Amino acid sequence: MDAKLAEIRTALASGTVAPFIGADALATVTHGADGRKIPATSDELILALNNGQPMAPRLMYEFPRAAMNVELKRGRSAVNRFMEQTYGDTAWQEAPLHRWLAGLELPYLIDLNRDTGLQKLYASRPHTLIVGTARIASGLRYKLYRHDGQAYGPAVADDAIDPAAAVLFKPCGTPWPEPSWIASDADYVDYITELMGGFAIPPFLKERRKGLRYLVAGTRLNRDTVRMILAEFIFGAAQPAGWVMIAEPNDKERRFCARLGLELVEADVHELAGLAEAAAA
């Protein structure tokens, strides 16, 4: 297993592999003031959304379903307020995995999480931020922001970004520089529909991503939501398409990975970062 992890680490360092990072990357992230853990997984988000109390079993199945229930009862603004109050808090620490990945100065990262950890770590270097959007009048389902190494500018068109800058893609949203969230079922239906239609990934990135490989880490692939997003994001990948790190994959995940040409590595993503830290010591 160490040899496989070393292979992945070497491939990442080459700049030809894009990480696709999920909630488990935030497993050790806590609040700098009170020490509480950041809500990141589906269950954690549902409990935080419902004042620490479980919801009905059918709503506990997945956060978008629970968020849709709140939206129907209290309006979309209630869900947006929750997201902004949760992730707009600047006292959350950065994930060790994110610190390690940022240290590699990768040209392209996809972060399904809604926290600002990676953005803080990239704040000293120019980069392009792509943020997923949903249920807006424009046919596009993304906004582009250019960071000059000091601050983000306003949203820009595709031809205004620096084609040489690193790309940080936040499909599910972020509070910074403008709050935008993919949270409820209705958000995901709209976003994934347009993603499948080609309107959620900028044209420059569609060209730039051709032939890349991917490291899928920190997320299970037993929910259709993540599976559909992943399948669209790795379109045009090299074959084999890369690796998926799941410590104990189920049969459904095995079949899905085989269909997409992704090699399953039965290890936790934090083992990868741990190996890298040991090698650098």
Any overview of this molecule?
Helices cover 40% and strands 18% of the residues. It has 281 residues and is α/β, with parallel strands linked by helices. It has two domains: 2-29 and 94-280; 42-87, no CATH class. A nine-stranded mixed β-sheet has the order 5-4-3-6-2-1-9-10-11. Strands 7-8 form a two-stranded antiparallel sheet. The longest helix is centred in the first third of the chain and has 12 residues, at 2-13. The two termini are 20 Å apart.
Number of spatially distinct domains: 2
Poorly predicted runs of 5 or more residues: none
Radius of gyration: 18 Å
How would you describe the shape?
globular
Mean pLDDT: 94
Taking the alpha carbons of the first and last residues, their distance comes to 20 Å
Structural class, by secondary structure, is alpha/beta
Largest sheet: spatial strand order: 5-4-3-6-2-1-9-10-11
Oligomeric organization of the protein chains: single chain
Helix content: 25-40%
User: Approximately what portion of the residues adopt beta-strand conformation?
Assistant: 15-25%
Total beta strand runs: 11
The DSSP helix count reads 12
Order of helices and strands: HEHHHHHEHEEEEEEHHEHEHEH
Features:
globular, 281 residues, alpha/beta, 40% helix, 18% strand, nine-stranded mixed β-sheet, two-stranded antiparallel sheet
